Amino acid sequence: EAQVTQNPRYLITVTGKKLTVTCSQNMNHEYMSWYRQDPGLGLRQIYYSMNVEVTDKGDVPEGYKVSRKEKRNFPLILESPSPNQTSLYFCASSFAGGPRYTQYFGPGTRLTVL
Amino acid sequence: KQEVTQIPAALSVPEGENLVLNCSFTDSAIYNLQWFRQDPGKGLTSLLLIQSSQREQTSGRLNASLDKSSGRSTLYIAASQPGDSATYLCAVLHASGGSYIPTFGRGTSLIVHP
Q1: CA-to-CA distance for B18 and B76, rounded, in angstroms?
Q2: Considering chain B, what percentage of its residues have pLDDT values greater than 90?
Q3: Quick one: which of A13, A34, B27, B104 is 20 to 30 A from A112 by CA?
Q4: Does B100 contact A98 at a Cβ distance shorter than 8 Å?
Q5: What rounded mean pLDDT belongs to chain A?
Q6: DSSP state of A53
Q7: Alpha-carbon gap: B65 to the closest alpha carbon of chain A (Å)
Q8: Of B32, B36, B105, which has the smallest distance from its Cβ to A100's Cβ?
Q9: A2: burial class by Cβ within 10 Å (0-12, 13-18, 19+)?
């Protein structure tokens, strides 16, 4: 089954404790991206990757890091999480061209930073 | 900066009604517009993608139209069913050559009651 998976689905952590949210897709997509969704603000893109070893900032990259060492994986790293990073996070993928074509989203990761 | 507005924010209708969800955007220089459905715990699912050169797209009971000059799109749902209950999001991609960052609206929360 074609899908985008994220882990963990739920995470509660404390300020300053480094964490990684994993994202994996099995559709051989070149483009992958991370979004956060906050009440009243809608989805905002954090980072995106056009292909392996190619990443770029989205609208709200501060406090986040990403890497793309393999085509199927695109982890999101919070090196020193803060309470304002409490949010619902989505990973998405698509063929080359990203949002110029249909995007496929993961189920989301709900992160709470205390 | 592109702004995307969705009206209404919430809608409750009886089963069987035809309904229209609205999406407006401030900058008409768009590459495409996508409509998504968001179900709790399941991420986003792409419903329809309209390229800037197109006027409408149809899939089953769904029809999306695009009027680029007026900055508007509508999602028409025919003969609504309880299974249509979800949040519907529209996302606009700017037409500039290097743009891979879509702008999302805040969504319309739809409840279809039996």
Answers
A1: 7
A2: 84
A3: B104
A4: yes
A5: 94
A6: T
A7: 17
A8: B32
A9: exposed
Q: Which residues of B touch A59 (CB under 8 A)?
A: 101
Tokens describing residue B44: 């986003």
Three-class SS of chain B: CCCEEEECCEEEEECCCCEEEEEEECCCCEEEEEEEEECCCCCEEEEEEEECCCCEEEECCEEEEEECCCCEEEEEECCCCHHHCEEEEEEEEECCCCCCCCEECCCEEEEEEC
Given B4, B44, B91, which is nearest A90 (Cβ)?
B44
Q: What is the pLDDT of residue B98?
A: 66
pLDDT in tens, B31-87: 999 999 999 878 899 999 999 999 999 999 999 999 999 999 999 999 999 999 999
Shortest distance, CA B50 to any CA of chain A (angstroms): 10
Minimal Cβ distance to B41: which of A42, A44, A107: A107
pLDDT-based confidence at A100, cuts 50/70/90?
confident
Q: How far apart are CA B22 and CA B35, in angstroms?
A: 11
- Cβ of B100 and A102 within 8 Å? no
